[in-house]
Amino acid sequence: MKLTILGCHSATPRVNTHPTAQVLEINNHIFLIDCGEGTQVRLRENKIKFNRIKHIFISHLHGDHVYGLIGLISTFRLLTRKTELHIYGPKGIKEMLTIQLKLADSWTNFPLLFHELTEKTSTLIFEDQSVEVHTIPLQHRIYTNGFLFKEKEGERKLDINAVRKAKIDMAYYQKLKQGFDVENTEGKRIKNSSVTKPPNTAKSYAYCSDTSYFEAIIPIIKEATVLYHEATFLEQHENLALPTGHSTAKQAARIALKANVGNLVLGHYSTRYHSLSSFKEEAEMIFNNVLLAQEGKTFSF
Amino acid sequence: MKLTILGCHSATPRVNTHPTAQVLEINNHIFLIDCGEGTQVRLRENKIKFNRIKHIFISHLHGDHVYGLIGLISTFRLLTRKTELHIYGPKGIKEMLTIQLKLADSWTNFPLLFHELTEKTSTLIFEDQSVEVHTIPLQHRIYTNGFLFKEKEGERKLDINAVRKAKIDMAYYQKLKQGFDVENTEGKRIKNSSVTKPPNTAKSYAYCSDTSYFEAIIPIIKEATVLYHEATFLEQHENLALPTGHSTAKQAARIALKANVGNLVLGHYSTRYHSLSSFKEEAEMIFNNVLLAQEGKTFSF
Predict the structure, then answer these.
(1) pTM metric for this prediction
(2) At what angle do helices A249-259 and A277-284 cross, to 10 degrees?
(3) Contact between B62 and A106 using a beta-carbon 8 Å cutoff
(4) Which among A14, A90, A96 is the nearest to B41, CB-wise?
(5) ipTM over 0.85
(6) Distance (Å, whole) CA B84 – CA B287
(7) Which residues are B263's β-sheet partners?
(8) What residue ranges define each of the domains in chain B, with the CATH number in brackets?
(9) CA pair distance A247, B224, nearest whole angstrom
(10) Whose CA is closest to A230, among A149, A138, A132?
(11) CA dist list (Å): A96 to A243, B97, B99, B158, B173
């Protein structure tokens, strides 16, 4: 699982800080999460192939999370994309984008499929053989979802020496991977666990931006491998956090602790702070495994 | 008159090339002309004060000319702008922007005034004591206007030695500047031209992007101090120009020659070309005073 930060600052794009956008690589999928202004240029900078992006998840319709989307779609069109593109985001996103395509008289030449969200409880919005995506309803000034990306548990792994020793025919290998007991060439029943090993642990990534401190998300993100939680402010500005629907680094860490996640990645920093190290220090007072999102940085988990 | 090029490439923003946006300083006005994605970052890079921009002119609703506008307006809002902002652009621009502000639940806290254009002949759209702005209807794939920015002729200049010698009371200086003859302290009628000099020549800037070769603009832009004319292609790709509603460098030069303008600035280059010098060479075969728009470049006229 690989996470690339394209932008991790709040509010307005500046020369060296960019609004929110991330790319998650998980089980051969490339998911784009949020799409602030300039995201298409960040994708180029980070050499992420446009055609591999088939699913874009938009948390909410504030500009710093979505104003780069129409430009990205237009660029896909100009590059004569054929691949279909799925957009998941709050109700209204379809109207917002289609009015702009209509006024430019520039309909896409690839299928553009909208999945508009209105649910206020966690909902399964994407699923295939290897991955599930669930919403994480957040508490912000407008309707906002985080997203939980979960690998599905893979197949069991053959202990090939044990398999051969137990004289099992190759025709049964797939059954073994699926966890079944099988008969060997001598008609003897072989217990699955004696010839296979457990699958790799299924990883998960919980993306939570933007939100005030909101304990209702804890059961949804429980035990996630990685939690990205916004930390717009430091504790010294906690008074600003609640009215603006944002969190402090300490609050993010408190959520990480209570949800017992593996790692916490902080981001969505207010541009009022000139150094990011205070965010890490503050969060580490509560939770151990704290990482700082930074533009252009890639994390592997 | 000062022209700063924020972006001068066509189609899609890239790491080092930006879609169309320009800033024209003329008689103390700062006019923003077109606003492709990322324009707000370019304004910061070029240290142009956001608050001095009170009028934005949008030629047409293709993304590379307008997708930076919603982000710029949002940033103005976040910076608690109070100054009113006038947007001039094709009908539809108001709906396109307001739907996005509505979905973000982020109405501006400053007056946002739309001047939607539908006329197909050149129209006066802005006027004050020192400047006029007229549309230049262009020929493109969708409804598109260029803009002609014209200084108004200023006051005549006093030849202060001649004025004193002619014994004219200071009370009459303003009348002299306005071109009237006056009486001197001895009751003698003094001819205006004997004590004043002509005003500075009124300058003008004609902005024409995007358009195919279109001679109908010539009477409108005649004798302009500076013509910016798009040159998306070189002559070798002339076959692409007409169907896409664009021009070649040579066609731009032909318009400059026929309109007898002072200077021709080329821009809106297709990103297929790796060097810009061919644009200049091609245009100079037809017209003498050719300049190349380049990101971050400022021209003074």
Answers:
(1) 0.92
(2) 40
(3) yes
(4) A14
(5) yes
(6) 41
(7) B226
(8) 2-154+200-300 (3.60.15.10), 157-197 (no CATH)
(9) 55
(10) A138
(11) 27, 9, 6, 57, 58
